[in-house]
Amino acid sequence: MSKRINILDESSALYKAMINLEMTLQTTSLTNIQKELIKTRASQINQCAFCLDMHTKDAVKYGETPQRIYLLNAWREANLFTEEEKVILAITEEVTLISQKGLTDETYGKATQFFDEDQIKSMIMAVITINMWNRIAISTNLQVS
Predict the structure, then answer these.
(1) Which domains are delineated in the chain?
(2) What share of the chain is helix, strand, coil (3-state, %, to 5)?
(3) What are phi and psi of 71, to 5 degrees?
(4) What is d(CA 93, CA 40) in angstroms, rounded to the nearest whole number?
(5) In angstroms, rounded to a whole number, what is the distance separating the alpha carbons of residues 26 and 58?
(6) How far is Cα 134 from Cα 145, in angstroms, rounded to an integer?
(7) Which segment of 3-12, 68-77, 116-125, 132-141 scores lowest on mean pLDDT?
(8) What is the mean pLDDT of residues 65-89?
(9) CB-based contacts of 19: which residues, under 8 Å, 6+ apart?
């Protein structure tokens, strides 16, 4: 792959805006594991090797098990995820694949059974943010190091 523009130049106002969004998401009540499940699942869907490498390592650092990471792509069939996590993963998929059907009323309704409004806002913003990072990494050919 050819080298492309460095959109992640730390002096760039665009990069600083992305980092501000990421830092704000760190202050939400979502757990580190919940955030990494969102980041990893969206990155799987988007086939972003750079982000998958980063977020699977981060997930393990926060205590996620390798088995759950291995089976994340089949979370519906694996009995390793809580009902709350399944809702988070459904939101992640539906927002990432927004053109298919968007965030459905069924999934949103399930989310309200487990999470408050601020948590749901945080989930949606976390999905949007990782999707932005995936698009940056893929379009600029960021490589796994």
Answers:
(1) 32-139 (1.20.1290.10)
(2) 65, 0, 35
(3) -100, 5
(4) 11
(5) 13
(6) 16
(7) 3-12
(8) 97
(9) none
* Distance from the first to the final alpha carbon of the chain: 14
- pTM: predicted TM-score of the whole model, two decimal places: 0.93
Instruction: Copy the structure tokens of residue 86.
Output: 């399944």
Distances (CA, A) of 46 to 59, 68, 82, 109, 135: 18, 19, 24, 26, 8
The span from the CA of 108 to the CA of 112, in Å, is 6
- Residue type present at position 19: I
For helices 117-139 and 32-46, the axis angle rounded to 10 degrees is: 40
Q: CB 107: neighbour CB atoms within 10 A? A: 18
Which structure tokens are listed for 142?
């960021």
Q: Are 136 and 7 within 8 A, CB to CB?
A: yes
Which residue in 130, 139, 132, 141 sits closest to 54, CA to CA? 130
